Amino acid sequence: MIALITRLARAEEEAWLAVLRDAMPLETILPIATLTEAQRAEVEIAIVADPDPADLRRLPSLRWIHSLWAGVERLVGELSDLERPIVRLVDPELARTMAEAVLAWTLYLSRDMPAYASQQRVHLWQQRPYRPATELRIGLLGLGALGSAAAGLLQAAGFTVSGWARSPKAIAGVESHAGAEGLRTLLAKADIVVCLLPLTAETKGLLDAGAFAGMRRGASLINFGRGRIVETAALLAALDQGHLSHAVLDVFEAEPLATDSPLWDHPKVTVLPHISAPTNPKTAAAVVAGNIATYRRTGAIPQAVNRDRGY
Ligand code: NAP
């Protein structure tokens, strides 16, 4: 018995239920609200999307939890007392989608689209110097499932790529950095910094005034990780002082972004509504089905989130 536990709108939950059942025709998957007390006692696996933690605590036979999302900081925080493995979504299609977004918005910045858009508004015909991709260094913060896919696509487009992770990585052609000194080196060299880090106790507020001061003058930031990794006031100050050129933000401290946020109207900020890598229900359901099939066959629970590291 598998319980589907979400706080999604009803239609969205029903759509997920349908694709999950399609992907796992031999499994019984039921929404938590429809389970009897006896059925709850049988649930071994919970598939979750923004679940109410109380629902998970009421499942005495629960062995593990599969999230439908790649980012699990909220789940890890809310379930700190529930010692069950949390498996997050690692979907190659999600990584491909994110890599595509990183390339798209990197090109948006490298080809000066914000500047040409504002020139057009004042009918200004002015050619700006062309900067070939090979002369631009993109600094990726995070070289996990999403960061490493982005590194591949950026390199294929000709960009020079550096990356930063907790542990050094060997990715062909990518200059790898780790640790505090590695972060300083990456920030000092990158023309565009792309954040693909998870939100953890260590990454919260990582991109603050000190980090921005350590970036090259005229550099830009793309944040596709989580909003709280960036200190918004410090970012706005760095943009207003002209130290940074532009920021493309897809994630925010609070979402949806408040209608009175200064970010909306800032000429050097592009606001996106958390859309850089939407989960594809079909491919995500196939990944979840694969993990559950392996568990049924072998008893092995897929690699879980490390609670101490927070990702
Ligand atoms: P992942 O595979 O767990 O990779 C995380 C990367 O961050 C790893 O390279 C890790 O280093 C590095 N890292 C973590 N903490 C660090 C620290 N303190 N110092 C240095 N490096 C650190 O995660 P993922 O699948 O790539 O996803 C990354 C994040 O993207 C998710 O957590 C989520 O928040 C966000 N996301 C956003 C969207 C969107 O639409 N905007 C969509 C999906 C996901 P190691 O490799 O050394 O462990």
Task: Kindly estimate the percentage of residues that lie in beta strands according to DSSP.
Answer: 15-25%
- Supply the number of helical segments: 11
Unreliable stretches (pLDDT < 50, length at least 5) are none
> Residue share in helices?
25-40%
Mean pLDDT: 98
What ligand species are in this complex? NADP nicotinamide-adenine-dinucleotide phosphate
What's the number of extended β-strand segments? 12
Q: For the report, how would you describe the main beta sheet?
A: 7 strands, parallel
Structure class: alpha/beta
Tell the overall outline: elongated
Give me the side-by-side strand order of the main sheet: 8-7-6-9-10-11-12
Order of helices and strands: EHEHEHEHEHHEHEEHEHEHEEH
Radius of gyration: 21 Å
* First-to-last CA distance: 27 Å
What does this structure look like?
The protein is of the alpha/beta class. It contains 11 helices and 12 strands. It has helices at residues 10-23, 37-42, 53-57, 73-78, 92-110, 113-121, 145-156, 179-189, 209-213, 232-240, 281-298; strands spanning 2-6, 29-31, 45-49, 64-67, 86-87, 137-141, 160-165, 175-178, 192-195, 219-223, 244-249, 269-271. The strands form 2 sheets. It has a 7-stranded parallel β-sheet, with helices on both faces. A 5-stranded parallel β-sheet has the order 2-1-3-4-5, with helices on one face. Helix 1 crosses helix 11 and helix 5 (92-110) packs across helix 7.
